[in-house]
Amino acid sequence: MITKSEYRDLAADVELLYTNYCEVLDDGNIDRWPNFFANDCLYRVTTKENQERGMPLNFVFCEGLPMVRDRAAGLREAVFHRSRSQRRVISGMRLKTLDGIDIGGIETCATFLIYESLGDGPSQLLSCGRSSDVIVREGNELKFKQRLCVIDARVMPDSLVYPI
Amino acid sequence: MIENVKDPIHAGILHAFFSIFGIWRADQETEVKVDSSGRSSVLVSTASFKRAAKEGADETSSATGEFNLEDKRLIAHQREYEHGTGAILTIWPNLIVLQQLNCLAMRHVRPDGPDACVKTWTFFGYESDTPELLQKRLMQANLLGPAGLVTIDDNEVLAITQDGSQGSPSAATVLEAGEGTGDADHMMTESAIRGFYKYYRSVMGI
């Protein structure tokens, strides 16, 4: 039986992972994005519509760390895009399971929002939705073994260049 | 956005991902076919999967620091059709049906006022697809759509172009990159765009 203080300790570590993750991406350090993932990770961004209809299609689908690194390198080297500023907000994070941080990982869920500022326009909400993640401990660090981001909207107001 | 997939010239210049990995490039086996009225057209390309030749660079090595894929499954292709590995069929006026490696998709462009449009992407496969082929289609979908490693290029360039043209609503800029409205056995042509507007003018009575 896990106590409230044990939950708080684990939750604080996981919160810090999300905070660091958002900070790295908001600062535009796409090269450091893969550092947050375990070797056998799964990273997916899809829509609520695809999920509800049982469609396996994703906006972004990376299976394993090398593919995450390829996505990061691709965005840097091969994709033309305008310069933009982003702010990620992750809210309401909850640990769904508490056992196994060192073995199979623990499950979390949270709400995400990404605001984007671009050109002469005002900041706009690029995307919001819900994430279902699996987090494991590797050495002293927490890593995403799974990050599944499900976008609420059926229409994106602009390109989804950087990761959620 | 309608012209985008009727303009094969831009693909080799803009889409670095295609160029780098030899998926869609002007120096490969390519073809443009335009129907007699000009309204619909198809662009066909056959991937060589050869990296873009760069002076002094080893084609297969990433030792030069050039972008390479660690996991080649992203573009691992299974040949499905005899005639090309990529085909973009545009159906008058605003639908495209495309094959890009093993990705099969439709892109429907709907105007959303004078300065915007909404693109609806529908990806599909067949019930008879093997699990391996389905996996390839899903993997290669990383190249297309709102987060696509190739299609982001188009969204971004066209957003810049749109901003530019909005600033001068009554001005016209003409950059001719070819002539004629017929077929070609190469990609350095804009005949599909010219054909489109020839037909558009007749339909609209301009």
Describe the structure.
The complex is a heterodimer of chains A (164) and B (206). Chain A has helices at residues 4-26, 48-52, 65-77; strands at 37-47, 60-63, 84-95, 106-118, 124-138, 141-151. By secondary structure, chain A is of the alpha+beta class. The model of chain A has no long low-confidence stretch (mean pLDDT 96). Chain B is α+β, with helices and mostly antiparallel strands and 206 residues long. In chain B, 26% of the residues lie in helices and 20% in strands. Chain B contains 5 helices and 6 strands. Chain B has helices spanning 8-14, 16-21, 131-140, 151-166, 191-204; strands at 29-34, 41-46, 86-91, 95-100, 103-111, 117-124. In chain B, strands 1-2-3-4-5-6 form a 6-stranded antiparallel sheet. Chain B is globular. The interface between A and B is medium-sized, with 32 and 30 residues.
Throw out a few tags for this protein.
heterodimer; A: 164 residues; alpha+beta; Nuclear Transport Factor 2, Chain: A; six-stranded mixed sheet; 3 helices; globular; B: 206 residues; Naphthalene 1,2-dioxygenase Alpha Subunit, Chain A, domain 1; 5 helices; 6 strands
Number of helices of chain A: 3
**Rounded to an integer, what's the Rg of chain B over CA atoms?**
18 Å
Envelope shape of chain B: globular
Proportion in helices of chain A? 25-40%
Tell me the CATH architecture of chain B.
Alpha-Beta Complex
Q: Which structural class fits the helix and strand makeup of chain B?
A: alpha+beta
Shape of chain A: globular
CATH architecture of chain A: Roll
Mean pLDDT of chain A: 96
The most extensive interface between chains reads:
A-B, 32 and 30 residues
The CATH topology of chain A turns out to be Nuclear Transport Factor 2, Chain: A
**Rg of chain A, Cα atoms, Å:** 16 Å
The number of helical elements of chain B comes to: 5
